[in-house]
Write a structure and sequence with these properties.
Elements: H1 11-38, H2 60-66, H3 69-100, H4 108-120, H5 125-134, H6 152-163, H7 167-175, H8 180-191, H9 193-208, H10 212-217, H11 226-235, H12 255-288
Helix pairs in contact: 1-12, 2-12, 3-6, 3-9, 3-11, 4-6, 6-12, 7-8, 9-12, 11-12
Length: about 290
């Protein structure tokens, strides 16, 4: 019979655990504050006072902000950009990465070098803005989608993943009369589901959190994304960002609770989706980084 001897904690272990607990508290504290304030009843809300849970629960802030046109427009804009952008990102990334795995393809080396070049060097903000302007995409949702259909890092990771797939499967499919498109759709795509799930999360989070490009390219406030609206709510102290200044709803809903409710609503979709894709998240990235 073997006995497992428990490791005695040293002074260094206690210091490390204490630091980790402190860092965890610092990270969790803002979320607790936002959550608590957003659900606090306006009648019991006291500015700058923190509760782990609201003294009296209320959905007043959520009801108010969900009834405003500004938030609904921002939500619709963000959903459209996220869905359309993620779908197109997946198509362009995986089709191009599959092409890059074919070393015998004419121009393969030139294309691969161009991809690596963009990984190291970027044109910058001004050329990007001029390109979007010349394409006539200013103040359009497509200004946030077309210029970022794919990126070098995603292409390299997906290409590495596809390189690890057994080439014998493709050869067998071609012997059975499958075309290149059929091999891609029937063999490569089904085997790439872990990578697709991982990059779906990558692309969706990136589009959902679009802020800087939206601030530059979208001049119409009706087309603002959620992140731009939340910025207006949180930073612009003279307005609550949803069509009223100061206290809203005839003074019954404090401005601070509206801000925190907007932050919670902007985070909620990603927090809901992430647990379902978490198992594919790590698996997809690891498979894409190892060539078998």
């Amino acid at each position: 019979m073997s006995f497992v001897q428990k490791k005695r904690l040293t002074f260094g272990d206690y210091v490390n655990y204490s630091l980790l607990l402190l860092i965890s508290f610092v990270c969790v504290f803002p979320f607790l504050y936002v959550f608590s304030v957003s659900f606090t009843d306006p009648a019991t809300y006291i500015p700058l006072q923190f509760y782990v849970f609201p003294e009296k629960w209320s959905l007043s802030a959520y009801k108010y902000i969900l009834s405003t046109n500004s938030f609904i427009n921002a939500m619709n804009s963000t959903v459209f950009i996220t869905v359309a952008g993620t779908f197109l990102n997946l198509i362009f990334t995986f089709t191009m990465a599959y092409g890059l795995t074919k070393t015998g393809l004419p121009g393969h080396r030139i294309m691969m070098r161009a991809v690596v070049f963009t990984l190291v060097f970027s044109a910058g903000l001004v050329p990007s803005y001029l390109l979007v302007k010349q394409l006539g995409l200013l103040n359009s949702y497509w200004a946030l989608i077309w210029p970022s259909l794919t990126n070098a890092w995603s292409l390299i990771v997906v290409k590495s993943f596809m390189d690890s797939l057994p080439s014998e499967l493709e050869d067998a499919a071609r012997i059975d009369g499958c075309t290149d498109l059929g091999v891609f759709l029937r063999i490569v795509i089904p085997l790439s589901m872990p990578a697709i799930a991982a990059f779906t999360l990558f692309f969706a989070v990136a589009h959902w959190n679009t802020y800087f490009n939206a601030l530059i390219y979208l001049s119409d406030s009706k087309k603002w994304t959620l992140q731009v609206l939340v910025k207006t709510l949180v930073i612009d102290s003279d307005s609550n960002g949803v069509g009223a200044s100061g206290a809203s709803d005839q003074g019954r809903v404090p401005q601070e609770t509206i801000r925190m409710a907007a932050i919670m609503l902007s985070m909620a979709p990603i927090l809901v989706v992430y647990p379902f894709l978490q198992k594919y998240f790590a698996k997809g990235v690891m498979l894409g980084s190892i060539k078998g």
